[in-house]
Amino acid sequence: MLVISEVADELSQMRALLTGALAAAIALVWSLSAAQGFATYSGGELFQRFCASCHGEQGRGDGPVADTLSVLVPNLTQLAQRNDGRFPAARVRDIVDGRSIVIAHGTRYMPVWGYEFWVEEGADAVAEDEARIMIDRLVDYLQSIQRVVDQAAPEP
Ligand code: HEC
To answer: Where are the domains of the chain?
Structure first.
């Protein structure tokens, strides 16, 4: 009986070890795949995943997190209208990437996406290309949601 219970003990210890190792391996694979999964997202999907919490599902600056910030979250559907009807793609790109922007006064509340995406995708040279592609897709998406609103009339 003693022997059998010792074997049983050892078996359950081994099982615990194996389960722990397996769980760790699964967690690692899962986090890697989760970290590197966003490069395949469309601009709209990226926007919903990373931007809508602040800028709102429609990009109007009314996401659930917006109220908690002490600054106004801009409406991203009027970037063209506010720039004489032309969508300022290069400037928008630089703002979203954020790495080349120097803040003259105050704080930037928006995350520096060029850096965030680079880290998210694995922080290497491939990740740099992926971060650039993701930002390009976001800029194209933002361009696609531009609207012209009559300043005199309330927004629908
Ligand atoms: C934590 C909230 C938050 C998130 C998330 C966020 N933003 Fe912003 N965004 C802001 C705020 C606040 C500003 C105004 C500038 C500032 O304070 O940093 C801003 C400014 C901008 C601007 C400049 C608008 C203008 O009027 O010049 C663009 C473009 C923009 N965000 C795009 C994005 C995109 C694309 C994403 C997702 C990848 C995103 N934002 C995610 C809060 C956020």
So the answer is: 1-35, 38-144
Q: What is the CA(32)–ligand 1 centre distance, in A?
A: 27
Closest CA to 145 of 53, 41, 54, 56: 56
Q: Per the structure block, which two tokens stand in for 13?
A: 């210890």
3-state secondary structure of 150: coil
DSSP state of 61: S
Per-residue tokens: 151: 């300043």
> What's the 132 CA to ligand 1 centre distance in angstroms?
17
Is the CB of 131 within 6 Å of ligand 1? no
Q: CA-to-CA distance for 107 and 128, rounded, in angstroms? A: 25
Q: pLDDT of the chain along its 156 residues, tens only?
A: 556 666 667 666 666 655 655 655 555 555 555 555 799 999 999 999 999 999 999 999 999 999 998 899 999 999 999 999 999 999 999 999 999 988 777 788 899 999 999 999 999 999 999 999 999 999 999 999 999 987 676 666
* Residue 115, CA atoms < 13 Å, CB-side half-sphere: 8
Full-model pTM: 0.80
